[in-house]
Amino acid sequence: MHGMLLLAILLGAWCMDASGTVTELYTAPQEFSEPKFILRQQDGRTVVEGLCVDIMHAIERTDPHIRFVLGPPPQSLARIEASLVAGELHVACGFLRTGKREHALHYIEPPLFSTDFYMAVRADDDVAVRNWEDVRRLGEDAVILAKYACAPALSSVEGLKTDFSAKDTKTNIQKLLAGRGRFFFHRSPGIEAAIRDAGAQGKVKILPVVMSRQPLYMVLSKAVPAHAATRIQTAIIRLEANGELAKLFAKWRADD
């Protein structure tokens, strides 16, 4: 559907919301983002589940006036971000905070959850790092492989050698095993499943140090009216207060 036509339909839906009907907000599953979004085949069709799907359902239960429309197919983070800026999508789940995004999008406080970032190395690598300074001391040998989605978690750390060219975790782990980088940087939950899905168990190990801890947020297009943003924020505050967000995060952490 063309952007202008979609926008006209949605504006009509938002106007009806003022009279008490449901506000539909369009979103898309982010590819290669497990456990935020996980795609499974069931009875010949693709089913999307995951932490963000559970969070959106919890918001809908908390406020029946909000409905998230999760449209196929899965999209890259860059595509989702551009669609939010253009108003073609209205909401996205689990975004790291950056200055550029803050200027273009509306962040909902409080964060949905915080995630820890770890580094993995080849199983026969005896390297030990306690902090980023230890990584910098390794010089040219310390290339860090990561997805573009994880780049904001490293943006404040100077002097690192990074490679964000691979779009999925499996490719990054293959590059690690081939010696095209010394470290694989990824979040938890997610890093253990990535190693398992790449068939690299026993070949790759996770270093025990949390290298970064980052909050992840629900973000809205600035085209979303204030009343809808307020409803979503109110629902998230309630879910945080009653412990539901923590329960959902613990559920998907356990599945890593």
TrEMBL record:
Taxonomic path: Bacteria, Pseudomonadati, Pseudomonadota, Betaproteobacteria, Burkholderiales
Protein name: Solute-binding protein family 3/N-terminal domain-containing protein
Domain Solute-binding protein family 3/N-terminal: start-end pairs: 39-252
A Pfam family matched in the record: SBP_bac_3
Signal sequence interval, chain numbering: 1-20
Protein source organism: Noviherbaspirillum autotrophicum
Key words, A-Z: Signal
Superkingdom field: Bacteria
